[in-house]
Design brief:
Low-confidence stretches: 348-363
Mean pLDDT: 91
Number of strands: 9
Helix content: 40-55%
Number of domains: 2
Distance between the termini: 48 Å
Order of helices and strands: HHHEHHHEHEHEHEEEEHHEHHH
CATH topology of the largest domain: TIM Barrel
Structural class: alpha/beta
Largest sheet: 5 strands, parallel
CATH class of the largest domain: Alpha Beta
């Protein structure tokens, strides 16, 4: 190889460029347009994994007896529960306010829907949990759920009340059934004492030791955010990506240990990078479900090619029955049944999976 692969890899994984002066986006986050990956056109590529594959082949040519530990492709589905329900568990004041807002906007369908849900005649449009559970069972999958549990709501923290019985029961169920992590509120980025409070609430309600996290709005500032997470007992973080565009923020598709550049030391925190989030495709890129599926499959194929870990982010508010997101649940179900299911069944073996799909197509 014609360059220093170790230095280049360290530069990308350590997020060296995020310690330097850089542009910030409208939310005060590191702007993806400042990154080398964006400027040089490789944001969509797990470049570090590609380099490592080439380096491995080079070593095997020179040292045929050398053996490497094999890796298998992994598909990790994760959910951010920013707003657990559209109408339920919000109290009468918020629902009356929402009703008046809909009347002011002339949206009478929303008024009817809200009170049909509150009256028990219709399912809440964000309540797709049973449907997701059925998909997980079908695919033999243990996803991650990240719950936003602010004590008080704010401009960017708008989940249902943490005192609501239905919401508490939802948290209890998922803590007992799946992997659960904290979704630190926007407010916790300003008032650092709130992070520990939110983790403790989740641990008490769910009777579970919480060691995983993902920043709400991907509000990630290196190194400060990671240091606060470590101090709060977090050992796995899933925030390495952008909240504005899909792609590989650290140019890698496998977990890695975070190295604190300023302190010049390895830490106890493992970073799980994501490359696709439905909210980026829906809100930022304005993709249709079909366009989003094509982008998702591009990342799926590129990560599978290097035997990496495909971490994707989904929201119940997008996968539910809200008319604004029509078609997204079908896209997600297609991905789950045609990709995730077979990956789990054949444990990442592409040859066996292709044979199985071929058999299914034939009469």
């Amino acid at each position: 190889m014609q360059f220093d692969i170790f230095a280049a890899t360290f530069y990308l994984l350590s997020r060296y460029e995020e310690y330097l002066p850089h542009d910030k986006d409208e939310y005060g986050r590191y702007a993806h347009t400042s990154s080398l990956a964006y400027r040089e056109g490789f944001l969509h590529v797990p470049l570090v994994n590609t380099w490592l594959q080439e380096f491995k082949l080079t070593l095997q040519v020179r040292y045929p007896a050398m053996r490497f530990k094999g890796r298998h492709f992994e598909n990790v589905i994760t959910y951010d529960i920013d707003i657990a329900y559209s109408y339920l568990c919000k109290g009468w004041l918020r629902n009356v306010g929402g009703t008046l807002r809909s009347i002011w906007n002339g949206d009478w369908n929303a008024v009817v829907e809200r009170w049909a849900v509150l009256g028990g005649y219709r399912k809440d449009p964000f309540d797709c949990y049973e449907w997701l559970d059925a998909l997980h069972l079908y695919c033999r999958l243990k996803p991650y759920y990240f719950f936003l549990v602010p004590k008080n709501n704010s401009e960017y923290d708008k989940n249902v009340s943490t005192s609501a019985k239905r919401f508490r029961e939802l948290v209890e169920y998922y803590c007992a059934t799946y992997n659960v992590g904290i979704h630190p509120s926007w407010q916790s980025g300003d008032d650092h004492s709130l992070l520990r409070e939110e983790i403790e609430w989740l641990e008490v309600i769910g009777d579970k030791d919480i060691q995983a996290s993902r920043q709400h709005y991907i509000r990630l500032t290196v190194p400060e955010t990671y240091r606060r997470l470590i101090a709060a007992g977090i050992r796995k973080d899933f925030s390495m990506g952008y909240g504005s565009v899909n792609g590989f923020r650290a140019s890698v598709s496998t977990p890695f240990t975070w190295f604190d550049l300023e302190k010049n030391e390895a830490t106890s925190l493992t970073i799980y990078p994501f490359c696709f989030m439905d909210a980026n495709a829906f809100y930022e890129s304005k993709h249709t479900p079909s366009q989003a599926f094509d982008q998702l499959m591009m990342y799926y194929n590129s990560v599978k090619k290097v035997n990496g870990m495909l971490v994707t982010i989904w929201h119940n508010s997008i996968l539910g029955t809200d008319k604004a997101t029509a078609g997204w649940s079908r896209m997600f179900e297609l991905f789950m049944k045609e990709m995730v299911y077979w990956d789990a069944y054949y444990d990442g073996s592409s040859e066996l999976r292709e044979n199985a799909l071929f058999t299914r197509v034939l009469p």
